[in-house]
Design a protein that fits this description.
The structure holds two protein chains of two kinds. Chain A has helices at 4-24, 77-91, 105-115, 129-133, 164-175; strands at residues 45-46, 56-57, 67-72, 96-101, 119-125, 141-145, 151-156. Chain A is α/β, with parallel strands linked by helices. By secondary structure, chain B is an all-alpha fold. The chains are: A alpha/beta, B mainly alpha. Chain A binds chain B through residues 30, 32-36, 73, 75-77, 101-104, 107, 126-129, 131-135, 137-138, and chain B through 16, 18-22, 25-26, 51-52, 54, 64-65, 68-69, 71-72, 90-95, 97-98.
Chain lengths: 176, 147
């Protein structure tokens, strides 16, 4: 009769094989969450990205009302998809401040003319400096900022219709 | 026939580039003037993960965002910051994920401890096995071989 200890290494090997096989078929998680939630935006000042709206500084976030900070770009396709839902948020009374990543003024103006302009201000971040400061790793991303300039929530990817109520709820929480 | 034409067209199609039209950041592809500083910067860049192209370091990647991260690394090194300070600045924003230099934390310590335990078990097993057969020195092994 074989001793059970002889089987232990084989069972262990089979376990790791199973684990590796299982992980192979798990969908890849491409989201890299920011670890800046609960922390303040940095001191910054961005030039206007468009003819239509002024630039952005930290002080614009410190007037006591929570806002959305939308990281986007005219060259980003999902940003086109989220435009109507940002419009809906704006119509619900939410102030949205945009930061255009690596963008040209004429491209931003063309995007706004085509897909609408829900922004109160749009800053131009030509070297992704603010994006790196707040731990954002792509476009589009949307941050909820409370009335003191503190980040309270991060939404990664385009805002879809069913994300609108959640963002409104997060803004309400940030107001408390 | 039509199927083949479609297939050919599909394979030649270039995906719409989700890429910006701006030139790279000043220090994305430009080395620092001081070779010692540049060497420090490159060493750090090779151990920072590109956030856009997740299996490459920012030194290896041509993604615009990797270029912007290299710009940050080089300008911060030129301003006199230490590489580990810059690594920590990124970890503060993106978590350990952004660094290729593994640290011992509450979730990673088993990776460092398990090999030591396995080595210890192997050592004990080996000692017991060898110890069972012989209690003396080499002479005994020769005697065993002769008999």
């Amino acid at each position: 009769m074989m001793r059970w200890t002889l089987w232990a290494p084989l069972l262990l090997f089979a376990f790791f094989l199973g684990l590796a096989g299982y992980q192979l078929f798990q969908p890849k998680d491409e989201f890299i969450p920011s670890t800046m939630i609960g922390r303040s935006l940095p001191e910054f000042s961005l030039e206007p990205a468009s003819e239509a709206r002024p630039g952005v500084t930290l002080a614009d976030f410190k007037d006591g009302t929570p806002k959305l900070l939308n990281i986007w770009a005219s060259w980003c396709l999902p940003c086109i998809a989220e435009a109507p839902h940002l419009e809906a948020l704006n119509e619900a009374g939410v102030e949205i401040i945009g930061v255009a990543i690596r963008d040209k003024r004429e491209d931003v103006d063309r995007f706004l003319a085509t897909h609408g302009n829900p922004y109160s201000r749009i800053g131009s971040d030509e070297i992704s400096a603010i994006q790196l400061e707040i731990g954002s790793s792509g476009v589009p991303e949307t941050f909820v900022i409370d009335g003191n300039g503190v980040i309270t929530h991060q939404h990664i990817g385009d805002v879809r219709a069913d994300d609108v109520p959640e963002l409104l709820e997060k803004l309400r929480e940030a107001a408390e | 026939m039509r199927g083949w034409v479609t297939l050919l067209a599909a394979s030649l199609a270039v995906p719409v580039a989700a890429q910006d039209a701006l030139p790279p950041a000043p220090y994305a592809y430009t080395q620092l003037d001081d070779p010692a500083q540049e060497a420090k910067a490159v060493e750090l860049m090779e151990t920072l993960r590109c956030l856009k192209c997740q299996s490459q370091s920012i030194a290896d990647s041509d993604a615009p965002m990797a270029g912007d991260m290299r710009h940050q690394v080089r300008t911060r090194i030129a301003a006199g910051q230490e590489p580990e300070q810059i690594r920590q600045w990124l970890i503060d924003r993106y978590g350990d994920y952004v660094s290729y230099d593994p640290r011992i934390t509450s979730s990673t310590w088993p990776l460092f401890v398990i090999p030591l335990i396995l080595l210890l078990i192997a050592g004990v097993l080996l000692a017991r096995r060898v110890g069972r057969k012989s209690t003396g020195g080499p002479e005994e092994i020769f005697e065993e071989a002769d008999s």
